Amino acid sequence: MRVLVTTAAEKPHFLGLVPLAWALRSAGHEVVVASQPELAGAVSAAGLPFAPVGRDHGFWRMMRAYSLLGVLEKDTPPFGMADAPEHEVTWDYLIEGYRRVVPHWWRMVNDSMADDLVDLCRTWKPDLVVWGSVSFAGAVAARACGAAHVRYIWGADIFARMRGLFLERSAERPVHSREDPLGEWLSGLAARYGVEFDEELVVGQATIDQVPDVLRIPVDDRLGVRYLGMRFVPYNGRAVVPDWLRERPEGRRLCLTLGTSATDRFGGYTLPLGEVLEALGQVDAEVVATVPLKARQDLGTVPSNVRLVDYVPLHALAATSTATINHGGWGSVLTGLAAGLPQAILASWFDNPMLARRLSALGAALDVPVARATPELLADSARRVLEDEELGRGARRIAAGIRSRPAPGELTVELERLAERRGSVRAGAATGDPRPSER
């Protein structure tokens, strides 16, 4: 079958899709990745065919502007309360959040590629479209060409969770006072291509979920979300594993990674990196810190136990480490969990604080909010994750749950069935036969 994989041009989001894309190719299927032109380098480096669609979005230019103005909030409506008890999530909170994210995030990353994406689907005619969590244009394009489509989520399903609560709160209000920014935008987008809006465009015909069961959050049944569980397989991009990383060190090793978005998108870290490294110099462990060359210019001399590296494959570093300090991104955290590593998480925004809270409650990580993360506190946290056996046992329990899930190659069979069912319906519609045709 033909499979189109599409996501907005965000490298971390694409990297998470690569193991599945290659599993599909290895199973003999034709796979093409479609996104804005900015993603071409990352896709080519992964060895996958790339189809540029539309123009690059301006989301991060807007985010940097808001950051400079100091208006970014730690609580990100409507997702900052994604793991809160249902009764605490109000209509006012939800509607304010949708008023923000729809025009200033989802429209920006979808509208700029929708026309070209629909054209690509109508001409290339994929059997299946796999679309990233908020790449709703992929669902619209699939519906426009009659393909099956599945949503791929990078972490806990905060999007379906809050959508379900939104629909519930909306139903409780008088009809004249209801408002649905997502439905209104997506209805208009879909109508341009002769597609009617329904909630399937929001959650897909199925959802590929790589999150361990203990980290999942409840989702309203009214959405009809069908989850396809898949094992998390780390992929960090094209890389060379250096000699020193091919075996475990004699002593303890601490991995320090604060994410790529801090430097790639915002131009720097939220913490004084030099002071952090100086404090970690007092910890009895080798500290491997992934710091891009452009972020090292003002560091000067670092402690003797600190190894600065521009880039190493995180899964290889995790495999030889004792513990990790990271920013709370799902890719970094799941990579550490897959290796059974206890973590100190410096979560600052979006769903990262939620992930840190949940892992802390499970006894697998320390939740260290950025607002109070002094270098001294980080050094104390480093000692705890290196030495606390309970944290280690908690992380290894979650690692076992990750390993128990089906590998991406096993999931391809289910995706083939989904595409075949959709293809049968499409063939019946084309011939005027209401019954599914047999292949």
Q: What order do the helices and strands come in, and which of them pair?
A:
Layout: E1 2-6, H1 11-26, E2 30-35, H2 40-45, E3 50-52, H3 59-69, H4 91-124, E4 128-132, H5 136-145, E5 148-153, H6 158-171, H7 181-191, H8 200-203, E6 207-209, E7 227-229, E8 253-257, H9 261-264, H10 273-280, E9 286-290, E10 306-309, H11 314-319, E11 323-326, H12 330-338, E12 343-345, H13 352-361, E13 365-367, H14 375-387, H15 389-403, H16 408-431
Parallel strand pairs: 1-2, 1-4, 2-3, 4-5, 5-6, 6-7, 8-9, 8-11, 9-10, 11-12, 12-13
Can you put this structure into words, describing what you see?
This protein is of the alpha/beta class and 439 residues long. Helix content is 44%, strand content 13%. The strands form two sheets. It has a seven-stranded parallel beta sheet, with helices on both faces. Strands 10-9-8-11-12-13 form a six-stranded parallel beta sheet, sandwiched between helices. Helix 1 links the parallel strand 1 (2-6) and strand 2 (30-35).
Salient structural properties:
439 residues; Rossmann fold; 2 domains; six-stranded parallel β-sheet; 16 helices; globular; Glycosyltransferase_28; EryCIII-like_N; Activator-dependent family glycosyltransferase; UDP_glucos_trans; antibiotic biosynthesis
Fourth-tier CATH superfamily name of the largest domain: Glycogen Phosphorylase B
Reported for the largest beta sheet, the result is:
7 strands, parallel
- Helix percent reads 40-55%
Beta fraction: 5-15%
Please give the CATH class of the largest domain: Alpha Beta
Family: Belongs to the glycosyltransferase 28 family.
Pfam family, one: EryCIII-like_N
InterPro entries: EryCIII-like_C (IPR010610), EryCIII-like_N (IPR048284), Glycosyl_450act (IPR030953), Glycosyltransferase_28 (IPR050426), UDP_glucos_trans (IPR002213)
Keywords: Antibiotic biosynthesis, Glycosyltransferase, Transferase
